[in-house]
Design a protein that fits this description.
Distance between the termini of chain B: 62 Å
Helix content of chain B: 55-70%
Structural class of chain B: mainly alpha
Largest sheet of chain A: 3 strands, antiparallel
Distance between the termini of chain A: 28 Å
Keywords (chain A): Metal-binding, Prenyltransferase, Repeat, Transferase, Zinc
Low-confidence stretches of chain A: none
Mean pLDDT of chain A: 91
Shape of chain B: elongated
GO cellular component, one term (chain A): CAAX-protein geranylgeranyltransferase complex
Family (chain A): Belongs to the protein prenyltransferase subunit beta family.
Order of helices and strands of chain B: EHHHHHHHHHHHHHHHH
Largest interface: A-B, 69 and 72 residues
Radius of gyration of chain B: 28 Å
Cofactor (chain A): Zn(2+)
Largest sheet of chain B: none
Strand order of the largest sheet of chain A: 2-3-4
Protein name (chain A): Prenyltransferase alpha-alpha toroid domain-containing protein
Low-confidence stretches of chain B: 317-329
Oligomer: heterodimer
Number of helices of chain B: 16
Number of helices of chain A: 12
Chain lengths: 331, 329
């Protein structure tokens, strides 16, 4: 297990602190989360300017419902409660993760206002929009909403039955999940669906045959857990792919690997082959590229790849709490 | 505005005081903005905060969104501007299309398009445009999501069958096309009717003759029911007699045997899979361990499968060719 050069990845993640390209402007909070979490799982968070980062994160907070939450990045000057500069569920989830990693106790988080705002993002069919008044609704934001409720330990804003029904409607004929009903099953969407069920305490619905769930939840019909596990296991071709008939890609070790963890089936990953794949995707600068043989790393794949390597159980990389995606020792 | 000339030097903007970002930057993860983008953002903050709805503000969003198509505050402002300025939405669609071709994997663009088409109330030319974008990447999930919305909203079901047939003809490994086929099938008025299912099953079995293609083999699971399982079993055995076994074919045999509680047959199939599907050896061995072996009445097909798997090594086909990785030593 010496082909993966953890020292190189430490260097890479320390460098990510320094500069980022313009494209990350609208997803800055999430990118910051990946930088901080990447440093954390490599045990490099001690010299981060913690207080400064925490203060910056709190300055992105909008505290009045229905707009409450954290913004990705301040676009406009206005600091007050306006619909102009949106807080979004994705950046609220990312901000809460950053705060947790850095040891903040959420004492300044406008918890109730965020929960009220989040409840306004849930549509009639149980799907969730990206932010109050937003037009994008799919499984990604179902996940963000569940993760926020879990982190704030407050489920008052969510109708779990409604959300569960939506997740069930996204299950594909392959056993996997799609981001919206009718679409192709996909590793990332499957991770979001399973994490949401897990965080709601309902992942047992997938195993109804074994009588894990009580009668009050009988109305929800999911396909058999076995079929889903088999679909996930079938994604491996050295590394993991996200859909049937596609090539392996470093980021799906995260989505598929963590999904298998949540289903108690991570032992079926062929660790040696997967390890081989990540060794091929590691670049000389540290970090990972999307596919083997590309010479340059990209930031998202480096972070998700590193976490995926952690799933394999490798010295020097902390394991994640699968449904939230940060160091498991934080819980 | 041309991007070469600084906005500060343009008379059009002389009455606006550009606003820098208010907060001190966090000391890690600094974004390296291009100078033009940073300047545009300063003017954006200004007009945005003043709630200015003007032609120049619209032009500013055009330039900003070209530089950063994921800028969702910009998209929202733009939608309001179009409304208030009563702009021609067909022209907006032209702008959007040119941007979409360069950034076709962006969520905002496709959701914005959906809202725009709702307002225009016509889908003229949309399918043609989507065909062009799917030509660039036929598995683009954003485009498929928008396409399904379009089909449902404007009742475009009939012509879609033809398109999916064409895609599968060009590339039967395209799982997005298979998935779209299921979308059509499950919305048909004949869904779950006997004749319809039988006909579709034959189409899928025909594709299963390509034993390396996972897609039709996954699709077969749509038809597992009491009435069709005999036909599926016969179909698989016929293909195996002609082409040999692949892991996908064996996986489906295992699935059928499990449903029929034919533990002895499962045992044989999963043991073979553990032997030939190196990648998932641990998984198939677990399936073997879980199998309850009980003797059952074997059909002729079962007897043939047993013999073929036990006696004839030539009946299975190495399965790593599709991913272009050779089997490990």
């Amino acid at each position: 297990m010496e082909k993966l050069n953890i020292q190189k990845h430490i260097e890479y993640f320390r460098r990510t602190r320094e500069s980022l390209p313009q494209e990350v402007h609208s997803s800055y909070m999430t990118v910051l989360f990946f930088i901080i979490s990447g440093n954390d799982i490599l045990s490099q968070k001690d010299d981060l300017p913690k207080d400064e980062i925490i203060d910056w994160v709190y300055r992105q907070q909008v505290t009045q419902a229905p707009y409450a939450g954290f913004r990705a990045n301040p676009s406009a000057e206005i600091l007050t409660q306006t619909p102009w500069d949106y807080a979004s569920l994705a950046s609220t989830y990312s901000a809460l993760c950053i705060l947790k990693i850095l040891g903040d106790d959420y004492s300044r988080v406008a918890k109730n206002q965020i929960i009220i705002s989040l409840s306004q993002c849930i549509l009639e069919d149980g799907s969730v929009v990206s932010h109050y008044g937003g037009i994008e609704n799919d499984m990604r934001f179902v996940y963000c909403a569940c993760a926020i409720c879990y982190l704030l330990d407050n489920w008052n804003g969510i109708d779990k039955d409604k959300i569960t029904r939506f997740i069930a409607s996204c299950q594909s004929y392959e056993g996997s999940f799609a981001i919206s009903p009718g679409l192709e099953g996909h590793g990332g969407a499957t991770y979001c669906a399973l994490s949401s069920l897990y965080l709601m305490g309902r992942i047992g619905l997938l195993d109804k045959e074994n009588g894990v769930i009580d009668d009050s939840l009988c109305e929800f019909s999911f396909d058999r857990k076995d079929k889903l596990i088999e679909w996930l296991v079938m994604r491996q071709g050295l590394g993991f792919s996200g859909r049937s008939g596609k090539a392996p890609d470093t980021c799906y070790g995260y989505w598929v690997g963590l999904s298998l963890c949540m289903l108690g089936a991570s032992e079926y990953v062929n660790r040696l082959e997967n390890y081989e794949f990540y060794s091929e995707c590691q670049t000389v600068y540290g970090g990972f590229s999307k596919y083997p043989g590309l010479k340059r790393p990209d930031f998202t794949h480096s972070y998700l790849g590193l976490c995926a390597v952690g799933v394999l159980g490798i010295d020097g990389v902390k394991k994640l709490f699968a449904p939230i995606g940060i160091d498991e020792n934080l819980f | 505005m041309t991007s070469e000339i600084s906005m500060a030097q343009q008379s059009e903007w002389s009455d606006v005081i550009p606003k820098p970002e208010y907060s001190q930057k966090v000391k890690i993860g600094k974004i390296n903005y291009l100078p033009q983008f940073e300047e545009m953002m300063k003017y954006f903050r200004s007009v945005h905060d003043n709630k200015e709805y003007s032609e120049r503000a619209l032009n500013l969003t055009t330039n900003l969104l070209k530089a950063c198509p994921g800028f969702y505050t910009g998209w929202h402002y733009r939608a309001e501007l179009l409304d208030i300025l009563k702009k021609n939405l067909d022209e907006e669609l032209v702008f959007l299309s040119s941007l979409s071709l360069r950034n076709h994997k962006n969520y905002q663009i496709w959701n914005y398009r959906r809202e725009l088409i709702k307002k225009i109330g016509s889908c003229e030319g949309e399918i043609d445009f989507l065909n062009i974008v799917l030509d660039i990447d036929c598995k683009n999930i954003h485009v498929w999501g928008y396409r399904q919305w379009l089909i449902t909203t404007f009742n475009l079901w009939d012509q879609e069958y033809e398109y999916v047939a064409k895609l599968l003809d060009e590339d039967p490994y395209n799982n997005s096309a298979w998935s779209q086929r299921y979308f059509l099938e499950s919305h048909s008025q004949f869904y779950k009717t006997s004749e319809f299912e039988k006909k579709n099953l034959e189409f899928v079995l025909e594709h299963c003759k390509n034993i390396d293609n996972e897609c039709p083999y996954n699709y077969l699971k749509v038809y597992y029911c009491q009435e069709l399982k005999e036909r599926i079993m016969q179909g698989l055995v016929d293909i195996a007699k002609d082409k040999g076994f692949s892991r996908f074919l064996l996986q489906n045999l295992g699935f059928l045997y499990e449903k029929d509680a034919k533990g002895e047959m499962c045992d044989i199939v999963y043991k073979k899979l553990a032997k030939i599907d190196f990648m998932r050896k641990g998984y198939w061995n677990w399936k073997v361990r879980r199998t309850v072996r009980k003797n059952i009445q074997r059909t002729d097909n079962d007897i043939w499968v047993c013999r073929a798997l036990r006696d004839n090594e030539e009946y299975y086909n190495p399965i790593y060719n599709y991913y272009k990785y050779s089997a490990p030593q």
